[in-house]
Amino acid sequence: MIACMVTGGAEPYYVRAEEYSTGDEPVGHGVETKMDLPQYPIAKPAPQRIAVLGYLVSEEDSLREGISYSVNKKDLIKFGKQEELPFAAHYDGNSYNGYYRRLETHVLDPLLEKGYIEIEERGRRKLVRPTELGRQSYVAFQYVDDEQTV
């Protein structure tokens, strides 16, 4: 059902069996009716947002005991440049502040709105970490084709 909602490439349905087993046999036999289920499309995050979520998840997962989490916005800009993500690759300004604005506008704000990340202020630094929903969304969407982005 979830795959149908994300990709839009399959039709969800439910089949009611003619007869159900009562013992160790397979669950049901035959087809009594087939019912189409409603489709509720799920908008997949943009590829650069999925890439940032993946980076945040992998950084958090790679922490060793006794080492504190420290991914901040500057780290995300470096990652964006390295991976040539659109927010960084398509910026030709000469101010580093422009990278921050583009990161916030095109990546962080939409992820915050969906509840996929949280930003924690520590002094002058702002640490960005994935929420549990963000982790689950990364796992769910990392394999969906880029063509399916809404």
> Rough shape?
elongated
Main sheet overview: 2 strands, antiparallel
Residue share in β-strands: 15-25%
Strand order within the widest beta sheet? 1-4
Rg value: 21 Å
Secondary structure: number of strands? 6
Distance between the termini: 18 Å
What number is the mean pLDDT?
Answer: 84
**H/I helix tally:** 6
Ranges where pLDDT stays below 50 over 5 or more residues in a row are none
Fraction of residues in helices? 40-55%
The protein's oligomeric status is: single chain
Query: H/E series, N to C?
Result: HEEEEHHHHEEH
Question: What is the structural class?
Answer: alpha+beta
Can you describe this structure in just a few lines?
By secondary structure, this protein is of the alpha+beta class.
